[in-house]
């Protein structure tokens, strides 16, 4: 599904020429934009079923450049993205997933494990693009600002970048699947990654084979979505 176009209108200059640059650079997001944005959020799916059609190199770079606009603690931009293209590396990642997937299934009872095995939890064989995402907690960029008491905000920043990438890809009709059933040590070894980098996630990118508004886990009967009221608290 491709999203419809929208208009983003500049603010009018009502406060004189001194504020001209500020006023003209600050857009107003219209109701039409808000509706399209909600559609984007609704149709952003964790894709597992990909076509093998390649993604144009320029299209991928555009998505990555948009992802790089994500906020980060201290403006540190701690994400490190590895484009995994080698067949040996991809095969090792797939084997690691299969091993860890079998271990995960064994943790469930017989009935739940049976359903677990029906789930398609990765698109490693079909997806044309693989991105391994890491956090460099020792980057000097940002000079440590904002992370002295909560160093985990570095990893949180990388996750925020992944979400931005996900939305940027969806706008282009490209699906993203986050593969989490992996052994970080095996990924580090397969990709020859510095030991100090923290593994955050492994992303498969490609054009979806199917389009569904409901999450796949919901359609499979594993877990549906629950209302926001279940997660909202006051103190």
From TrEMBL:
Residues 42-207 form the Nitroreductase domain. Residues 1-20 are annotated as: Disordered. Residues 11-20 have a biased composition (Polar residues). Pfam families: Nitroreductase. It comes from the Bacteria. PANTHER family: NAD(P)H NITROREDUCTASE RV3131-RELATED, NADPH NITROREDUCTASE. This is Cob(II)yrinic acid a,c-diamide reductase. It comes from Roseibium hamelinense.
């Amino acid at each position: 599904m491709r999203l419809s176009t929208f208009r983003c209108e500049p603010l009018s200059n009502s406060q004189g020429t001194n504020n001209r640059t500020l006023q003209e650079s600050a857009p107003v997001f219209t109701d039409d934009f808000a509706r399209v944005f909600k559609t984007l959020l609704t149709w952003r799916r964790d894709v597992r079923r990909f076509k093998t059609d390649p993604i144009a190199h320029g299209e991928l770079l555009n998505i990555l450049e948009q992802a790089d606009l994500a906020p980060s603690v201290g403006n540190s931009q701690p994400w490190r993205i590895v484009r995994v293209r080698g067949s040996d590396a991809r095969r090792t990642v797939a084997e690691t997933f299969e091993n860890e997937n079998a271990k995960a299934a064994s943790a469930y009872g017989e009935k739940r494990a049976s359903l677990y095995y029906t789930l398609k939890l990765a698109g490693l064989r079909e997806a044309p693009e693989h991105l391994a995402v890491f956090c460099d907690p020792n980057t000097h960029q940002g000079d440590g600002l904002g992370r002295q008491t909560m160093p985990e905000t570095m990893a949180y920043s990388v996750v925020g970048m992944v979400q931005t990438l996900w939305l940027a890809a969806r706008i282009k009709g490209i699906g993203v699947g986050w593969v989490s059933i992996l052994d970080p040590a095996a990924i580090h070894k397969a990709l020859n990654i510095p030991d100090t980098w923290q593994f955050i996630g492994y992303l498969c990118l490609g054009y979806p084979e199917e389009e569904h508004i409901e999450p796949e886990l919901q359609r499979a009967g594993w877990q549906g979505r629950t209302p926001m009221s279940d997660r909202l608290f006051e103190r």
